[in-house]
Records
---
Amino acid sequence: MLLDATASGLFPIAPTPFHPDGRIDEASVNTLIERYLAAGATGVTVLGIMGEAPKLEPEESLAITSRFIDGFGKLPVIVGVSAPGFAAMRSLARQVMEKGAAGVMIAPPPALRTDDQITGYYRQAVEAIGTDVPFVIQDYPLTLTVQMTPKVIRQIVEENPSCVMLKHEDWPGLEKISTLRKFQAEGSLRPISILTGNGALFLDFEMERGADGAMTGYAFPEMLGDVVRLQKEGKRDEAHDLFDAHLPLVRYEQQQGVGLATRKYVLMKRGFIASDAQRKPGAALTDAARAEIDYLLARLARHDPRARI
Amino acid sequence: MLLDATASGLFPIAPTPFHPDGRIDEASVNTLIERYLAAGATGVTVLGIMGEAPKLEPEESLAITSRFIDGFGKLPVIVGVSAPGFAAMRSLARQVMEKGAAGVMIAPPPALRTDDQITGYYRQAVEAIGTDVPFVIQDYPLTLTVQMTPKVIRQIVEENPSCVMLKHEDWPGLEKISTLRKFQAEGSLRPISILTGNGALFLDFEMERGADGAMTGYAFPEMLGDVVRLQKEGKRDEAHDLFDAHLPLVRYEQQQGVGLATRKYVLMKRGFIASDAQRKPGAALTDAARAEIDYLLARLARHDPRARI
Amino acid sequence: MLLDATASGLFPIAPTPFHPDGRIDEASVNTLIERYLAAGATGVTVLGIMGEAPKLEPEESLAITSRFIDGFGKLPVIVGVSAPGFAAMRSLARQVMEKGAAGVMIAPPPALRTDDQITGYYRQAVEAIGTDVPFVIQDYPLTLTVQMTPKVIRQIVEENPSCVMLKHEDWPGLEKISTLRKFQAEGSLRPISILTGNGALFLDFEMERGADGAMTGYAFPEMLGDVVRLQKEGKRDEAHDLFDAHLPLVRYEQQQGVGLATRKYVLMKRGFIASDAQRKPGAALTDAARAEIDYLLARLARHDPRARI
Amino acid sequence: MLLDATASGLFPIAPTPFHPDGRIDEASVNTLIERYLAAGATGVTVLGIMGEAPKLEPEESLAITSRFIDGFGKLPVIVGVSAPGFAAMRSLARQVMEKGAAGVMIAPPPALRTDDQITGYYRQAVEAIGTDVPFVIQDYPLTLTVQMTPKVIRQIVEENPSCVMLKHEDWPGLEKISTLRKFQAEGSLRPISILTGNGALFLDFEMERGADGAMTGYAFPEMLGDVVRLQKEGKRDEAHDLFDAHLPLVRYEQQQGVGLATRKYVLMKRGFIASDAQRKPGAALTDAARAEIDYLLARLARHDPRARI
């Protein structure tokens, strides 16, 4: 089933679990899938920035994707296909779609500056992967350095019917969600799904501004799913209470570089993966950092029993 | 009295209060000074990035600085003197030191890349302002795009005896504090003061890693002062409890661009300044944003009565 | 007399001559003016990037500007007023216009990325300096990192009636000139003057694409004036012959950083200025570099007797 | 035979010839090889930035590499293996070395800033590809935005015995060659080969500063070879005479983006390749640009009969 503009809920960004010797830990992939589904995931995204995709051999990337597609059954699997050239992007996109992926995610290359360069890039990318492949725009200026205005996003959506979703992780970004939803209310933008990332640092308010859900890799996907659900049910205070309890750890995890190490460490402690190993090159946690995370988990456990480890 | 390496505690980054018509609001400057002192400020920093310094005429900059120097009495006033050229930097530095400033703060210009370029820049800056003017290194890659390793900071400190403080706002930055303190423990770096900024997003742990205090403009300077004090007294849990209660607002305020509008809005609601006006160009808050901040304040007031407005 | 869209010919970018001890060399300013006028200058630009403007005290900037205004009589003097804040920009713009400047030149700050940010910046700048001050857009991505498409330039021109000129120094940039002239032929862009910079590296073809003249600081302004004139007279081969003879030196001078040192060295050897001193910080020529320039001058002298020194 | 520090002479950067329909033009690869050898090439570099490498499928990259290895016989073939991840870099490096490549070239990714980041990256890259694979540092800040000081290059060379060559294309860069050669004269840097790129814009003087040869793709490789040879024979004026005759075209070709289109157009006119087609996305020449290049060729033919077409 292909991804479409009605996608919502919780799409975890999956890490790639490794054994300490660097081999892919397939058993942990299976555990991850179980846990994500138990947490209420409505889909999943693999081979994203936090999935250590550039460290994988092509056949490994395909194998992991297939395993997630099998495990998620009818739920959509989105595959990151960003690449420095369109040949590699097309090749990966065609292969994963054949295997049953629901769509692909494309981040703009860092050199893009002007509005025309950005919209031109997405036209060329769609020409490369084919207009039959649903795709997600990744809008992440903090890491990618490319700045897309709401007008530019609208133009990409309007020019490319296969664009069905925005992965929103601009920062600050609340007004961007409001502006895009206003475009739609005015009729100048067709419906698209907006899932938010940026480590969930603003998920509480993003839902209130009109986001459809979360697409990020915070090590407690249950919290993401709960906040999305509570906000949709109108339980605003409850949503914020839960979010605020997690915010000290959310904030800690959302550090460039060391963030993935933090995430894998917590996922390991929670039994989602067997080891927090990263393939080289990867930032390791110091003893001081591990002690800080343990302290944050202990404090969190007072409010959320799922943090009791 | 000149700034030296023993500086610690709470140095608020002062905003510049304006009347809605754009004139400087001198009465609010006085109120700010009173409130900062009541909050336990041990110094203050003016004409920083958040002080709208580039929007001030030279005589206005000097007048505000003088007013803070008068109001803070024997407590040190640090003045931001970053400028695209050394002529303007020297001129401002000499003038504010004559008026009684304790030292100046210098941020590197965005074009600097290599270690040699950065250390060379600080040598030239010191030559320009004079070796008798104590100065603070501002290390803020998120905004300035210049990345300084601990070794580069050490070299700047060792080459320039007038360097007495690091305004640390790297992100992630906890390991940087630990590394610099380790350099000192090993004897390869002389003592310097480390105050942390970056909107206080990591103040809780920065104190535990060895920071001497906070230098940032969060709209509740009392919280900053309390966390610094509690950590120094060894009351770790109390420090984190207070910090965590504020973190949702700290996080909201620490957004590029809209952050200053948030800060001034809260300071206005708290009676620190009469108006939240910014000089042009300035990002305004939408109604939605104001409502979000009000909601955050109401939630915060449950834990910290100072947020009851 | 104010600058308007009919400006053309040769506008040298004037360096600021210093004595070896760092004082401004006013006698050399006078010599520069004489030589520029003798070379056929139809105007001049002061306080540009190559004029070491950030190293000047405000009163020095005004004094130099006044001297050029006096010396150039009825010919237009353009003053660079780019600044990190609008207060300084407005202040300098108002002062130089009062002294008789013909217009000002404004470069975008390096942080601008999206089309909206760039056009918004120029709207704010015009609000700051006043709509009665004619201004020049400086489009120099190689140094400023800001990329403006022809559409963005058109929007700035259309939104701001006081915009009368483009200083074109994009690289590659020939198609940009053609596109802007096509906009005008189609009626979607009102007339503006286009003078080209970038060290004259493409002046030969820029004239053929529709430029009105040269605005750059190459140490042989006579060559710039001659190429502009020959191209306007339809003497294409002659224009290229002269240009090609100078190209090895043009190329050498158009190096970031060391370029100004090269330019001042040649101007000194040619008697335009008494010393090639730069104020600190400035890149010095090595002995090897000086020998290379001398060799290039000797080779040039075989084709252009003005290089015989 | 493996690449070593004695490499010198002319290493053309080979473009990838395509048929107008996008297929690789293998006959033109053979012609290119013949012409390069006839021009005196002492080696060749494939899959570089100008080889449209990111547009090739992996098997295509290997096929082209093999064809060059066969064609060049005992002369060394260097393969560009820069990639966003070490998995792809290792994989390509191992495969081409098995096929008989002499070494690989590695450019740093654009995000690198500090000296430690750059030297750390090369250590990790060598760990990935293996210490038995000779490699070339590509130092090209204009395109890659990474700035390496001579000290950083020295550290990379000293830390990694498999580093045998610097592809020097910093700009300005003459002093960098002199500094590296001075390091070697002082004994603080072991011998490495320095070949220069940057479109040959400074090849004339780079040879005088100590370069061992040229590694760039200018459409007249014969000129590159001749200038290298003449300079080595001490025929300085002859070298400059030839270089200067070509400089107008060298300058035209060394434009970002449109440069490759220019190069392929000239190579096609010269019979090196059958078509100037690029795979998408690629910048096309306008009629005006083609006419300019034709004019430059006609002018060049007066001095160098090889430009008569």
Note: The mean pLDDT of chain B is 96.
---
Amino acid sequence: MTKKMHLAAFITAGPGRPGGWRLPDSVPGWLDASYYQNMARTLEDGRFDLAFFADIVSVPDRFGGSTDSQLRYGALGSLRVDPLPVIASMAAVTRHLGLAATVSTTYAQPFTVARSFASLDHLSGGRAAWNIVTSFQESEARNFNLDEQFDRSTRYERADEFLEVAGKLWDSWDDDALVLDVEQPLFADPDKVHRVDHKGRYFSVQGPLNVPRPPQGYPVLIQAGASSKGKDFAARWSDVIFCSHASKESAQSFYTEIKERAATFGRDPEEIKILPSITPVVGPTTARAKELADEIFELVPPIGGLSTLAYHLDVDLSTFPLDERLPEVEVPGVAGHYHEVREITEREGLTLRQLGKQYGGRYEGNFIGTADEVADGLQDWFEDGAADGFTLQVPYQPGGFETFTRQVVPRLQKRGIFRTEYEGSTLRENLGLTRPASGEWQRRSGAQG
Amino acid sequence: MTKKMHLAAFITAGPGRPGGWRLPDSVPGWLDASYYQNMARTLEDGRFDLAFFADIVSVPDRFGGSTDSQLRYGALGSLRVDPLPVIASMAAVTRHLGLAATVSTTYAQPFTVARSFASLDHLSGGRAAWNIVTSFQESEARNFNLDEQFDRSTRYERADEFLEVAGKLWDSWDDDALVLDVEQPLFADPDKVHRVDHKGRYFSVQGPLNVPRPPQGYPVLIQAGASSKGKDFAARWSDVIFCSHASKESAQSFYTEIKERAATFGRDPEEIKILPSITPVVGPTTARAKELADEIFELVPPIGGLSTLAYHLDVDLSTFPLDERLPEVEVPGVAGHYHEVREITEREGLTLRQLGKQYGGRYEGNFIGTADEVADGLQDWFEDGAADGFTLQVPYQPGGFETFTRQVVPRLQKRGIFRTEYEGSTLRENLGLTRPASGEWQRRSGAQG
Ligand SMILES: Cc1cc2nc3c(=O)[nH]c(=O)nc-3n(C[C@H](O)[C@H](O)[C@H](O)COP(=O)(O)O)c2cc1C
Ligand SMILES: Cc1cc2nc3c(=O)[nH]c(=O)nc-3n(C[C@H](O)[C@H](O)[C@H](O)COP(=O)(O)O)c2cc1C
């Protein structure tokens, strides 16, 4: 059997791209459950592994200290529906599709989060995934009683302890604790449900959880840390890693590095799936695809894109001249996005204004062409050690997912590198990942890279 | 037009009653979405106003300092799925039914909760409700980094500020802030989205929310406080009040008191709906209903009921002799339940063991009989100033809801005291409640009783 790639869909519970919502084909259904449910059906028809929702807990104000540019241009942080009820409503209309929501360890409590995902995992029959983030915006800290955010190393230290507690809570019911013996009666065996009695630096949690062990053992864990601490965290805890690269070469070196790091943490590198982000534009001919990409590009207001880039880098880009290149800067935010942006700025000689447009309408990996050309590009990355599959972003929702599913997916299937039927019933099974035994958190949190 | 009663269904996202799960007709589907979705369909067929989920964030260990009695007997706190994804999945299969989840102000943050309910309100088309609790178990505090819980007055002070912040966040987008002008472009009008800049004793929150104002203005707010502070809180903030009474007389006096209190807080008493809890048992004949009630009663293990009563009263009942009456005790927990239990203990001369059985299989209001007799009882309470409607509990799920909907609802409809069609499209409209104007929180939080 040839190795198969995995596909995730990166859906925004809001307008997402500052040009996307302006397209005639874009549907402004961000506040309607049916909008997400229809995309879920499309993705399940296309045999996607999972749908993924990013998140942020503020309207970012990193551009000029104001939320205006986000709101005016419908940029990524302008409007974001809570992803948890969204994925619950998508689970209701699908049977196989995995469902991932982002929740920050910095502004939540482990009991709450462990319980939400355990509940979602049960309710969806083993399809829940948690994208673990530590957050990086001051505006988020200021919505949660802080004047400024904790520094990165504190955030990751807290995240490590958070995961340890979550693991203990998911394991607080043995797999066979629920007995349901009507006669005795014995609902659950008290000897198989354990207090966790965690007392650490950031959390003290007695347990047990009031939800039995999730069908997947733990929900699928996803991470996108880009700093050295972030990559360690991901190598230790993640089942799936998201990343964003401007070229195959940078994707390859990230891929190699993460797989090696996972091995040093005592994990089988096959048990970590790396799914770089792509935004293909598909057309009937190469020329038509390029035209389409240009049309979409035209609709991106440069300040809308720069506003989102400012929030991703956590750098106030409003202070730099628009018609010059962005100089090298200290980036407290997403290092990965900064590498990507530097690579593109150098390669294409962009001014800041052009970069804003580029970032707002960006096409990671530059997969623009016919369905066959896009499939070629994906196959090349996949077979050349750059990816275990991809996280599909689309220039506009929901149409972009329909096009990809109808045109690119069948070509990947024909080449034998993507499934035609789901392999299993849980997301872990479809991803080819082992169900963690009870106590697995212990091995992971003790591991040293 | 005759005044119509309102009906809520009290569903437990777990076994609920320590006898209920042992009944042959009980379906152990607490971990499946379809279990809740089927109930949602039944309730919508029966034109219920809303489905309501209670909650607790621990497995209580108030009986003998151990969770064993809860787990062994499948008592109320043994297993509780997170109600938020549950109501999201019920929203997916219904169009009119209101959906209420309990979230504690003591262990959550206002940004998170305001956003969840705003999101649910949008996704469900205006059907979300929040049952506001302040929590009262030490075991809950110990899952959230505390050695012991805050005292009641601190909890309510925090709850008041929590609601103030939530109100500010729901109002942080003006009703017409989302513009979606593709040409300009103008996604949202920055002048109509406001920071909240709240700085208080318990919270500091910058805002704005990243979700537009909910369709209902605020989600429907529900409360069940029973202490004097709790009743003040409810009179100030609630649209709907839950309570639990052993007789019509005590329901009447609570009803009168709350409506008066609401008036002193400057609110129209008609804008607060009081829905006492009932657990009817319906049979083809009176005798058969009584038999059925007895059969169900037989299945209740006394310790299972006492374990839940211990948690509700927050009193370790394992230290009292089982074959004597419960003496008068100091009750840090739910005063309302204590009044109810005292009333029954005196009236029926129960020992603690008998009380445990009674509490575990309890039938508030004692509506046991034919469908006509039950309808008579409800009509009497409703027309005699004891209730604006009811919160239906059932001795076993999901069957109890089907029986009530098929047999009692048509009789209430025939008498003209219950709707045959939904009046509006949002929960507020069906409850006959005004949509709060932006800024309403200000009036409520400033009001003095
Ligand atoms: C593809 C991708 C998606 C991300 N999605 C989110 C997100 O939804 N929410 C968030 O707060 N951070 C998100 N991040 C940021 C990361 O979680 C992480 O904080 C960031 O990469 C900085 O990593 P570092 O903290 O290790 O430097 C994302 C990063 C990447 C590369
Ligand atoms: C019918 C009813 C339902 C309740 N449901 C919950 C619940 O789901 N979760 C919870 O923590 N407390 C619940 N409570 C407790 C109340 O929220 C409140 O804490 C309790 O009545 C004590 O009130 P007090 O704090 O004003 O004394 C309920 C109380 C009643 C009477």
Note: The first strand of chain A starts at residue 6 and ends at 11.
---
Amino acid sequence: MTTRPSTAPPADPSARALYQSMSGLAGPLSSGEGAAPDFAAAPRAAAGREPSVLILGAGVGGLTAAYELSRLGYRCTVLEPQPRTGGRSRTARNGDELYEFDGEGDSPVLTHTCAFDQGLYLNLGPGRIPYHHRRVLKYCTDLKVPLEPYVMETTANVLHSAGHTPPGAPWRNRRIANDTRGHLAALLSATLTGDDEFTGRLRDLLRKFGELDEDGEYHGSTRSGYTEPLDVHAFPAPAPPLSLAELVASEFWKHRFYQPTDYLWQPTMFQPVGGMDKIVHALTEHITSRYDVTVELRAEVTSVDLTGDGVGIGYRIGGQELTASADYCVSNIPLPVLRQLTLTGFSAEFRHAMAAVPYAPTCKVGWQANRRFWEDDHNQIYGGISWTDHPITQFWYPSNDYFSDAGTLTGAYNFGAHAEEMGKLAPADRLRLARDGAAQLHREFLEKNTVPQELGVTIAWHKVPYQLGGWADWDPSDQDHETAYKQVLEPEGDGRFYVVGDQASPLPGWQEGAMMSAQYVVAQILGLLPRTAPETVRVPDAAALTQGL
Amino acid sequence: MTTRPSTAPPADPSARALYQSMSGLAGPLSSGEGAAPDFAAAPRAAAGREPSVLILGAGVGGLTAAYELSRLGYRCTVLEPQPRTGGRSRTARNGDELYEFDGEGDSPVLTHTCAFDQGLYLNLGPGRIPYHHRRVLKYCTDLKVPLEPYVMETTANVLHSAGHTPPGAPWRNRRIANDTRGHLAALLSATLTGDDEFTGRLRDLLRKFGELDEDGEYHGSTRSGYTEPLDVHAFPAPAPPLSLAELVASEFWKHRFYQPTDYLWQPTMFQPVGGMDKIVHALTEHITSRYDVTVELRAEVTSVDLTGDGVGIGYRIGGQELTASADYCVSNIPLPVLRQLTLTGFSAEFRHAMAAVPYAPTCKVGWQANRRFWEDDHNQIYGGISWTDHPITQFWYPSNDYFSDAGTLTGAYNFGAHAEEMGKLAPADRLRLARDGAAQLHREFLEKNTVPQELGVTIAWHKVPYQLGGWADWDPSDQDHETAYKQVLEPEGDGRFYVVGDQASPLPGWQEGAMMSAQYVVAQILGLLPRTAPETVRVPDAAALTQGL
């Protein structure tokens, strides 16, 4: 790796126009739709003068930067401290080792080894792809990563809340959703007094919206399910409705019930067949086999020096201390990890920015079930999420391998205080807690033959080495975050050092954000965009974007 | 085939209890869930005295009856007039010939031959399986028919209605759905005056339900999409909302917009991988290879005689007139076809019942598209249905082979007057009409290279030989139908002749109904249920159950 001066010209208006044309969209439905920019039309690096790039971290952002830059002739090297690529895009399979800091020493400890049966897997990080995340979908198409629908919500899913009547009995999604619609529509219908055309139509809309009777009253609907199984001589009769009083008293909407309504979780969502890490594996395979990119695993970066001509990196493989240098450095390292390195030549503003944003605590739990009981005649659940006021917060059913014998379940995915508390527990205790929560939704969790304790996996992302959290917890209401977010978008070292990842995107916690960030930085390095942060910068609302709050 | 007297005893209370235990369910979530009865526990026919059964029609109902009876030792023969099994469960593929009566002569004519590329297919009849249709799902599991999710609705789907502003511009599902919710919630919130706990919580629910601001007002939501594509420095801004006035003026709800809310169309739905006819093929293969059932294709039944000891059947293969007899006869023939046969020994009440119920007109159109333009950055549509006030009524996108090159689209599926009118057109004219309707949704239909005219297929089920309609159009408000439906459930000829099919079920137009009906008749033949119609019988509401009205 040699050091040479930056060769790309600063971005001018025509370069910017070229960049815009790469991501251009037109047509009547296009406003807001979004498209992945295509760098195929970008200028290749001049032969013999190909700039070198050191990419720190083989997460989604780092791999995307390596992919785009290497196919334009840039000489890329990726340094990754873990024995695998992907960062938080991790899928647990048999034999995978999970490490966390245990709060005792400085070194992470092996918490457990995944013991799922061969062929079973569970996504520990991102688990779904919205249809409008065009970058993720484009890379999957280009790299031939097969996708299948991810089901976010089925009306057979349940909600467990202590506010329910009878206490503790889970309610079906379809009853909550449709009985609520019915009652609200009836309340509104009762307030309408006019007999003009608009009011008449509005009444008609409400009847359809809430399935009201001719008088605008709600007395239940087969949308909520049937009273009893059909037979040839019977007629589908509506399940007796939950009353508005029960629904309101339960405060069901506080348990993310309406999250699937949000744009990020609307159908049709996708997941890669075989696990989310198929994407990072395809990226890794592509850049190493096709573009000769070196991906150094177990290479832990210890220092970054911007005081020379290029960027100087110190890193460690095994016990060996090594150095490297390049024209550019793209850092996919999470900010809480980056700020622990020996950083030389960085601005005070950047140091402040790294410290300003906390990373969100979040835990997941995964179970192997030896029988897909949730798909049986009692449960009839095929994918989607059940919600609960128990600390596990949510419970995912697999959107793959329906009707097969065994399967894996996401037995917890939580945030904030619940995640903090759960993360403090030893992994075995987390599994015990998660089993309690799951058993409130499904009594099958009382049968350890069905869901063996020793096959559970758990991760507290805020305790995972090289990650230290689920995502950058950007908060638009925090004044410090405004300065910090803008600073993170600002290259350091005279346009040589760039931060990428979902941490530098409006989509914290999403692979699309990591790819968007990488493409943005690639456009800067190529000289298609100015090497400064945009004048106006909006701080992402991490809570809304990860949890639908 | 020999004739012998009926050997099964009349149903007694213990037999009925056995039948109930076969379909039993228990547990907190089970009310109304439903399960497929399992005849494995039913008594087998005595060796050497196995009764014979003639099954008329190899539709879903006939094949199900053959499957259940043959595995209990009954000797079954199926007579099917068409060169394939499945009846309305038909999937069009390259080389398939479509016949219809053209109104000129007595014989059907070949309207066209499907010219799809090899590997492409389109379901011309049933196209989806609800998660609570336990019989269909159980047979698929037992017969190892692979299933994949059928996506009924995606928020990228569009609605075209002449009432829109600007006129003719399709609206996205997500805008209609969420802006309507927002406006309705705000209207209701504004009427709330109390400050008690209930009202406070109700206000909170409405804020979440409609995504209202702190004052209970609706100013748009990212649930409806973003104003513009995201970039690293931007924040997802809500698309400007459709106004309540626009929404109400459009009367969007009259175009089946809320059909996906109904229980029959709620997620998760399924479809067999490779085409709906995989189910009937698996049933056919199983009964012929494993239980030695003879399925005679091109065997057109001409007469049924109940005056002898058993049932006598006259039928025709090619020019040859043949006869057969059996202890029992199970007729899967649609009632409008059955009543055209020479029927001897049938009651006047049954003759009246056959004539009482009309069969519903319904048309479908299928297109091959050489490019999946609906999945591109402009459209972002992966499955689901777009709705229109054009006579095509609905427009289905494939829920299979996402991200591949070509695909098939359902370019029309209509009912009532639209279906009558469309059915009157010659197939080429139907395709021209359907293209006009599709082009209002997708301008890509103006490109004949993308959607070639000569690859279109169309079917008017009410003109199809041996079918004569989409389903029995049972109407609970018609007094004649009450008598007729009960009569159809009543065996003729002293318990020897039974009608099966979705026509004799509470689910007209659904395979689950056909299977339910077959299982009911099987239980009667086995002596597990009485051989009379139940005292109380409810007439199915075909319009609601097929069209979500």
Note: Chain A has a mean pLDDT of 93.
